[in-house]
Each structure stands twice: as structure tokens, then as C-alpha cells.
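TODO from last week: model Asparagine--tRNA ligase.
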Amino acid sequence: MKRTKVVDALSCTDFGKDINVRGWVRSHRSSKAVDFIALNDGSTIKNIQVVIDPTSIDAEILKNITTGACISATGVLVESQGKGQTSEIQCKNIEIYGLCPNDYPMQKKGQSFEYMRKYGHMRLRTNTFGAVFRIRHHMAMAIHQYFHEHGFYYFHTPIITGSDAEGAGNMFQVTTLDLDRVAKSDTVDYSADFFGKKTHLTVSGQLEGELGATALGAIYTFGPTFRAENSNTPRHLAEFWMIEPEVAFIDQQELMDLEEDFIKYCVRWALEHCKDDLEFLNQMIDKELIARLEGVLKDTFVRLTYTEGFEILKKAQENGIKFEFPVAEWGMDLSSEHERYLVEEHFKRPVIMTDYPSQIKSFYMKKNEDGKTMQGTDVLFPRIGEIIGGSVREESYEKLLEEIHNRGMKEEVYDWYLDTRKYGTCPHGGFGLGFERLILFVTGMQNIRDVIPFARTPKNAEF
């Protein structure tokens, strides 16, 4: 018999027909008169109840149906008499696909997230992580749908690159050289390497994305990026996913409009398409989750300059607010606690901060006429801090080249990038959104390692 997904079985009202469901046992309660199995196949947070007459199924089979076992159950779909469920299955036949011994690590309830991280290959079967990764899927679909509806082209940029988009140098190196046999000297002959030069895993697809935008008008990238930052925090990963749209003929105001519209679209999509999973997470993980998501949609985002934000923070500090990192002087890089204070305490809604000091922003950003600030457009969110980093890009060949020289960067590494300014340059801009930070916000989870299936962090590369 063809399998019916649990999500479809629970919504089906064609009672009296035979159906087959397959999945993993969440619980098995037994008595002399009746057995109840809660079965889940990953298609929904909800379980379907399989009701068994113990006299009709071999006792040895029933004994082996333990938490975590994988089974196939066939029976009659009937209207449920229990609370909180619409239908259940009166079982006629059960087949065990996979036994589950009593040392199954996910058997107990109430396990800590730290414990579950030790069993990353098994935690996917829990209710919490099932909900998180279904939401992650829906967020990916929302992103593609948004950009498709708005005329953007999905653009693939390289994972292996010879340039550093952020100019920070925290990159993973790619090589086929035998590191045990490399000459012990101050330099390495990369001409003998696979690509004939020094290459790395990408930290961003932005620079290549700009090439696409200056030809196709509007593009977006959505793929993995890598940062070799030795940061063991709940907010950092060495491998994560980025969404990076780039748009020709866009100014700073239009870019802010795009950022706000895009992220509201994603939040709205989650509320509309992930109702059951969000309700579960709202109950079990974060009691304010749904209210916070709805709050993002309610108000327009505050827009203010870095200088205005700095003055607010400085005044708050003078009035007794204690920051772990004191608000010292204009030009400092604001930390997550500063960003969250503005969003959560002062304005109580998301903020788009603009016009940052040039010394704390990247070389490709367009400078303002004051010569001190750049046209950055970062979106700050509750519980997260910066969730989007964006800017208008510098379109002047001369100014961009000057910035590269001023920062001690190698012009020859970026000659192809400079060509977009030399030949038919145009105003353009874009932003980057860390996908995992979006999932962190939408799910209410506390640690970024819990919103990606297989976290890559310092000293950890399991699977």
C-alpha cells in the first residue's frame, strides 16, 4: 500500500479507509486492553496516534516497538476521540523496519541543548530540531520566492576564490600541496598548487555578485560562506549560509526600503507557513516568540545614522546604563550589546543604522561627502543585533582604487573588480543577510549552532 505522510493523514477526513503510515516511534503506552503508539515521520511537529488491539498483533513485535524504533503501520483511519487530534489509526498490521535499543541517546525527555549537540546525527529526530529545520526549509523557500517575485536573478558565485571580499584576511586556505613536504622557508611556491596561486574558501559572494548586477540589473546569491575566525560564541560559525542581493541603479533610501521589505516578507512567510512549528517553539523554547515576530511586521523600522545612535548610547551610559564594552569615542565599532540596547530598550523595534565611520567598514562602500563616513545600511534586530549588513557600493574607479591603496591591499588582486568601475560603471548597492541569524530570530533558539544541521566551529568538524 502507498504510504501516506503523517501531515496528510492528520488533515484527512476520509474516515473508514485503510491507510499506511511510516515513521519513528515517539512513545509506546501499553495496557492489557489497548496499546497506543505516537508516530512521527518528520512531515509535521504533530504525531499520529496508532491504536492497537494487543490480541491482534504478535506480542514479540509489540515488545520491540520502543521509543526511536522505525515502523510501518497499516489500518483504518478513524475520527479521534482524544483531545488535540482529529484522526487516528485503528491498526491492523505493523512491520518493524528498525529496532531501537534502550541506549538510544534521544530517548529521554528534557535533555539540554548542550547534550544534544554531542549527538548531532541523532538530534534531528527530536521535536525541537524537527521544528527548527522545517522552518529553515520554509525560510529558504521564502527567500527564493521573494527575489523571483521582484525580478532578481539567482546568481551562482564561486566557493573557491583568490580574493577577500571583506579585506579582513580571516579565510580558510585551499591547497593540494603536500603540507608535510612543503619547503621550510618564508614563502610557498603556489605556482605548483592546483590553481597556480594562493586560493581560499569564500567569505562572501558580494564582489562577484556585483559583476552580475552590473550586467543583469538585479541578482541575489544564496550559498555557503566561510570565516576562519576563532570565535567560540553562540553567534558565530565557521561555515554558514549567506543571502546577498546586489542591485544596479539603487540609492541608499531605496536600499533601506529593500532590506525592510525583504525581511518582513520572510517573517510574514514564517507566520503563515510554519504555524504549528512556531506554536510548539513558542510553548517550549520562547514564550514571546510569536509576539516578537508579529511586532516586526507592526511598525516601520527606525532609521538613524551611526552618529545619532552613538549619541543615544553615550547619553544612556552617562545616565547609569552599564555596558560590558563602554561607549568610548566616535568611530568605535558598536558591539551586539549596543545594537540590542538601541533596538530592545530605546526604540523597542528594529533599527536601520546608516553612515558608519569609514575606518570600521569595508573598502568597497561609497563614502559620503564628509569624507569620514560611508553609506552603510545595517539592520539591527532584537535578540540578534546586526542581522543585515548592507551599503551603497563605490562606483568611482578613482575613489575605489584610492581606498584599496590606503588600506594596503594589492591592486592586482582586484583588477577584475576595478574593471566594473572602469568600463561603464553605474550606481549600485546591496546587502548580506546571515541565513542562520535569520533562523535564530524566527525560531527563538539561543545558539546559532542549533539552527544549522551540522555546525562548523573551532575544533569541531564532525560528519
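Done. Residues 127-149 form the longest helix (23 residues).
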